[in-house]
Design goal:
33 strands, 7-stranded antiparallel beta sheet, alpha+beta, single chain
Length: 740
């Protein structure tokens, strides 16, 4: 791929950016000063006839209306039902009775086609939100829960591709053009459908060509605290073939599921990406078609036989949609077929794909067939942009199985999606390429102790892209070009690493704890943080040292606390990894009640005596240091949360504290019915508002302010009571965790 094509892939991702970021800027957008007209756009889509007869004006009217804001409750966390209950019973019910300026507010509605009422949309604008303290509370709830990873604010049509992939926990998944990461988050959630399994067999490789956008992707993925996600930085059209060790042999990795959400012209995003109105031209699609096809071809090459790949764009243009699918099917010679997904999402309204379309230049010239294209335009216009001329072959493709979402049908953005199933190896890949042995560079020495590591950027060599019919000859070897930041190494610990000696005894880790899955980010010096990945991702890291540019992987499970050495262990538990790690911990656990959690989250360093008798008795038996605070739901008391809650804490000499980042603290308090709304202007509530604000509610604002300081200073009661505390580096509230 040339420099211009690479830059186009980075810059022409208008659709993916705007789709996934739709709601991040706020609820509704006011662009009254921008004229929402484009005559070329209207004439082009009128001529194509993609919109049903008599509906074109409705289609254009919908395109000019602001897009509803949509939210999605993360489905893999065990307390998703609790969040849904909170939304429906508290916020949505209050909004239903609300009137502003004499106008009744329309309550959020569940998306009819999204499973289990896990996605909602509303037409509330930022202007309306500012007029009501009740709506401001709702908005703060959404912002806080989004930061905690419990809610994603994502456009409705952007939620479709992961649903159509039909993810199972054992699937190996590739997200080819993943940034900014909303759909990647869905994939991770689906892997963790069973929260009782800390390490699903499957994993997600999330890739993006843009190094800077990869860090946005890391931020999105890190909110979900999964050990089964790896973020990599490659050109999707030439993403390297990876290898895994299977039964002592090196095998080529083929993915069970691939999400191919390609860069596109984004004309389905006109409702919020207002710039598209003035910038749209048919040339955009002509420029992107080749890149989209190359990415899709590379995807199906890496798809396992029997696997599914979803191809999607937020463009309505057949040049970017059906033309790419038709070219892919034609080149596959029967190895691919379009799946019929019509029954997969009941309630979703969509138009079937078309099998006839024309092409128009920005000057208004129309072409129906490649034979009509003058030689002067044949570099810009390619044969794959037209429908196949063989009617029998065209019919066998079943392009009507593609799905086009029109904005006026269900008040959404525009979207295109197609589900491909691989029935056989691609004709140009029927003989697998020879697997080159990789040198033993994956073993390294750290401080005299052997450790398996992934070499740094300088050690990456060449990437070979499999040849396919879109090229006249196989592409040459491409040297891995390294851009962006230099990443710290990924260094796996060995089972006899000295660091495990005190950790093993202090936390009484179970014998099946996977020590080999623990890594750090430094070869030398003291290990500051320890991370965990699944054994499958460890396999990937160790067998692809020269092929991948890894940006981030692993969930933080322990952080060094140098002052803790005197209490038996230099590493305290990290909240990010507690749900992954806790199943292996057999000591340092205090079972707490709802009232205990309220005390721990609304009071700073409460005395042990503030806990209820059962928890107090357990705490007194433990020495000072890091602890797990575990709430076990009581099915006989449905008024209390019906999901397990696990918090990291610190047992001091006379006090105890929950070591939980601020937004998670808010999240758990809301689950327990504690009000955590904070006036935006910092004004004190009126006397009337003060009534009833006692106990936890009155104290929570003070505690959260102190918590902000504590997160930065890491205050811990290290044995000298309340008067003498030692400070430690920042608490576990960071999102990237890239430093060693």
């Amino acid at each position: 791929m040339g420099k211009r094509s690479r830059q186009r892939q980075k810059n022409q991702s208008t659709g993916r950016d705007s789709r996934d970021n739709a709601v991040r800027v706020g609820w509704g957008n006011g662009y009254a000063d921008i004229v929402k007209e484009n005559k070329l756009f209207e004439s082009y889509y009128k001529e194509l006839g993609l919109v049903p007869e008599g509906e074109f004006e409705q289609f254009m009217d919908a395109m000019r209306e602001p897009l509803p804001a949509t939210i999605r409750i993360t489905g893999y966390k065990s307390h998703a039902k609790e969040i849904l209950h909170c939304l429906k019973e508290k916020y949505f019910k209050d909004i239903q009775e609300l009137e502003i300026d004499g106008q009744k507010i329309e309550a959020p509605q569940a998306l009819s086609w999204y499973p289990d009422e896990q996605a909602w949309h509303t037409n509330m604008s930022r202007k309306i939100i500012r007029k009501s303290p009740l709506l401001e509370k709702f908005h703060q709830f959404l912002v806080s829960e989004t930061e905690s990873g419990n809610i994603s604010r994502q456009e409705a049509v952007s939620m479709l591709p992961p649903l159509l992939l039909k993810i199972e926990p054992h699937h190996k998944i590739l997200d080819m053009c993943a940034a900014p990461g909303s759909k990647t988050a869905q994939l991770i959630e689906m892997l963790h459908a069973d929260m009782d399994v800390p390490f699903p067999e499957g994993f997600v490789i999330a890739n993006d060509v843009d190094n800077k956008r990869c860090y946005l992707l890391v931020h999105q993925a890190k909110r979900l605290n999964s050990p089964c996600i790896m973020v990599v930085n490659h050109d999707a059209s030439c993403i390297p073939t990876l290898h895994i060790n299977s039964g002592g042999k090196r095998d080529v990795l083929f993915y069970d599921r691939i999400l191919c959400d390609v860069p596109c012209s984004g004309d389905g995003t006109l409702r919020k990406n207002i710039d598209v109105w003035k910038k749209w031209t048919t040339s955009n699609s002509l420029h992107l078609h080749g890149l989209q096809l190359r990415i899709a071809v590379r995807g199906v090459e890496q798809l396992a036989v029997g696997g599914r790949m979803v191809y999607s764009t937020c463009s309505l243009n057949p040049i970017e949609d059906e033309a790419v699918i038709a070219a892919l099917l034609e080149k596959s010679e029967g190895a691919l077929e379009l799946a019929d997904s019509s029954a997969d999402l009941p309630g979703l309204k969509w138009m079937p794909g078309v099998s006839s379309w024309k092409l128009m230049t920005k000057e208004g010239m129309w072409y129906s067939d490649w034979s009509e294209v003058p030689s002067s335009r044949q570099t810009q216009i390619r044969p794959t942009m037209f429908p196949p001329t063989d009617s029998e072959k065209l019919a066998s493709m079943h392009l009507e199985r593609c799905m086009r979402i029109l904005p006026h049908h269900q008040n959404t953005g525009g979207f295109f999606v197609a589900v491909l199933v691989k029935k056989a190896p691609m004709p140009w890949n029927k003989r697998f390429p020879k697997v080159k042995d990789v040198s033993s560079s994956s073993a390294a020495q750290t401080g005299g102790s052997p450790a398996a590591s992934l070499p740094t950027d300088e050690n990456m060599r060449s990437v070979v892209c499999s040849p396919h019919p879109l090229f006249s000859r196989p592409p040459p070897l491409k040297k891995m070009k390294l851009f962006g930041y230099k990443e710290d190494p990924f260094v796996f610990l060995t089972e006899d690493d000295p660091v495990f000696t005190t950790i093993q005894s202090f936390y009484d880790l179970s014998p099946d704890f996977p020590k080999l899955n623990v890594l750090t980010r430094t070869h030398e010096g003291k290990k500051r943080h320890l991370y965990m990945v699944s054994k499958e991702l460890r396999n990937m890291l160790l067998n692809n040292s020269e092929r991948m540019k890894v940006i981030n992987t692993g969930v933080k499970v322990w952080s060094r606390n140098s002052d803790g050495e005197e209490f038996g262990c230099a590493f305290r538990l990290a909240q990010e990894g507690i749900y992954t790690l806790q199943p292996y911990i057999r000591s340092r656990i205090i079972t707490v009640s709802v009232e205990d959690i309220k005390v721990l989250l609304t009071q700073e360093n409460p005395f042990l005596s503030k806990l209820q008798d059962h928890a107090h008795a357990q705490a007194k038996k433990l020495g000072m240091g890091s602890i797990v605070l575990k709430y076990i739901p009581n099915p006989s008391n449905p008024a209390e949360p019906q999901c397990s809650i696990q918090l990291c804490g610190w047992r001091g000499k006379t006090s105890i504290r929950a070591f939980v980042p601020r937004n998670e603290r808010f999240h758990y308090l809301r689950m327990l019915g504690v009000e955590v709304f904070k006036d935006k202007q910092g004004q004190k509530p009126s006397d009337g508002e003060k009534e009833g604000k006692e106990g936890e509610e009155a104290e929570v604002q003070k505690v959260t302010e102190e918590e902000s300081v504590a997160e930065n200073e890491g205050e811990l009661d290290l044995g000298n009571g309340e008067e003498n505390r030692s400070s430690e580096p920042k608490a576990d509230s960071g999102s990237q965790g890239t430093s060693g």
